[in-house]
Design a protein that fits this description.
Blueprint lengths: L3 E4 L4 H13 L2 E6 L12 E4 L7 H11 L3 E3 L8 H11 L2 E2 L4 H7 L2 H10 L6 E3 L4 H8 L5 E5 L9 E3 L5 H11 L5 E5 L5 E9 L5 E13 L2 E7 L2 H5 L3 H16 L6 E9 L5 E8 L6 H7 L3 H9 L6 H4 L6 E8 L20 E5 L14 E9 L2 H14 L8 H9 L1 H4 L7 H6 L1
Parallel strand pairs: 1-2, 1-4, 2-3, 4-5
Antiparallel strand pairs: 6-9, 7-8, 7-9, 10-11, 10-13, 11-12, 12-15, 13-14, 15-17, 16-17
Helix pairs in contact: 2-3, 3-4, 13-14
Length: 431
């Protein structure tokens, strides 16, 4: 096991990782800035840094000066992880959960589609066109379609074409959005569901699927509600057959990745029940409590174990999913990041997890905005877990505008309770 770890984040991830590290006897080093927050009390020692964006080379230098033997980069939403892993590699320091070569492949939508093709996995990507004529060939028989940047890290937008008549204009807009960079052509699925399988890969190359997750409740492009296991699979008569296919595809993708750690394969499923790979990512998701609730695993501990070359522990190989868990991201649209008050309900830890990095009078941590916190609940059945989450949201107050009421409207919506919804649910509720 590692002796000391730098947690390269400024937010709730620090609290979460430090809690497990302390139990394992691993010394933790944190980053401290002038924004304040509870996370600045979580580690054994701290290094003072600015509250602005930190370059990968700067973080690697901090890790070297702190004489740690590993760095936990934070949650997988952080865009710097690949560059950080490269910088740490030069210093001989382990980046827990991040392989820079694998991260490079997974961020390239075209390269990921090629991996999927080799494994026989249907993909959203139809091709990487170099001309409008090539785009027409890829799109034939697949309308509606859309263009995106080939680089998953680039948020240049989505450019839709309902038919061939709109393809050329969409292609030109996409090229303009990427400033001449490569674009991919994808199927434009309507009324789809968003499913995911988290897997562990150990030093012996063993691939073990842990659990399926659903993130079909979106606010804009951000998933705000996660359920584990997937209600889509639970409510469908052929759900078990789709789940088996989902796991088979996920294992097929993971077996091609020369890496150690956690990886999640992400799929969209259309109205006909067909699965299409939309992406993959490595590391620890920000909203991971639902997975831990139903598996009774400490995912941070598992990442520590795998990062030192260990095999998947026997208790992980024999795990059984128990009950249902639902988790929500509490987001703010307020420009003022200061939190004037926090009303936090007292709840039992065996059924609830409230994760904040805030104290009254402090600002939302630099690596957290616009997320104010995360709330997750667990119960024997889905209906009870959703009720617990709704009650917790009703009691919760941070004194600034958040999406709390949107989340409560979703949880109370009849179609959601019946599992009969898709990725357009929030748009329909707010219309």
């Amino acid at each position: 096991m590692h002796k000391s770890v730098l947690i390269a984040s400024r937010g709730e991830a620090v609290i979460r990782v430090a809690r497990t590290a302390r139990r394992l006897g691993v010394e933790t080093v944190g980053l401290r800035c002038d924004a304040g927050g509870l996370y600045q009390e979580a580690c054994d020692r701290f290094v003072d840094v600015s509250s602005g964006e930190l370059a990968a080379e700067e973080l690697a230098a901090v890790a070297k000066a702190a004489e740690v033997d590993a760095v936990f980069p934070g949650y997988i939403t952080d865009s710097q992880h690949r560059a950080l892993a490269r910088a740490l590699e030069k210093e001989g320091i382990v980046a827990i959960g991040v392989d820079p070569d694998v991260a490079e492949t997974l961020s390239d939508r075209g390269a990921l589609a090629k991996l999927a093709d080799v494994a026989g996995i249907p993909s959203l990507v139809l091709g990487v066109p170099s001309s409008i004529d090539e785009a027409r060939e890829f799109a034939e028989g697949h309308y509606p379609v859309l263009f995106k940047s080939a680089d998953a890290r680039t948020g240049c937008g989505r450019f839709h074409a309902e038919d061939e008549g709109g393809l050329a204009a969409a292609y030109e807009r996409a090229l303009g959005g990427t400033r001449g960079g490569a674009v991919v052509l994808e199927r434009d699925l309507k009324r789809c569901r968003d499913l995911e399988v988290m897997m562990a890969i150990d030093g012996e190359g063993a691939v073990l699927p842990l659990v399926d997750i659903e993130t079909s409740v979106l606010q804009g492009s951000r998933g705000i509600l996660r359920e584990c296991p997937s209600p889509y699979l639970a409510f469908r008569g052929d759900g078990e057959a789709i789940r088996n296919m989902l796991y088979e595809y996920s294992r097929g993708l993971a077996s091609q990745l020369a890496m150690i750690g956690l990886v999640s394969a992400q799929f969209l499923v259309d109205v006909r029940g067909r699965l299409f790979l939309r992406g993959a990512r490595t590391g620890l998701p920000a909203l991971h409590a639902p997975m831990e609730f139903v598996t009774q695993l400490d995912l941070v501990e598992l990442m520590f174990q795998l990062s030192v070359g260990g095999s998947v522990p026997s208790e992980v190989r024999d795990l059984r999913v128990s009950g249902h868990s639902v988790g929500a991201q509490l987001l703010t649209t307020a420009e003022n990041r200061s939190v004037p008050k926090i009303v936090r309900p007292t709840v039992p830890q065996r059924t609830h997890r409230i994760e904040l990095s805030l104290a009254e009078g402090t600002e939302i941590a630099p690596d957290e905005y616009p997320r104010v916190g995360k709330l997750s609940t667990h119960a024997p059945v889905r209906h009870q877990a959703c009720q617990l989450l709704d009650r917790t949201l009703a009691w919760m107050d941070v004194g600034i505008e958040t999406n709390r009421e949107v989340l409560r409207r979703v949880l109370g919506f009849e179609a959601f309770r019946a599992g009969q919804y898709d990725c357009t649910l929030v748009d329909r509720i707010e219309a």
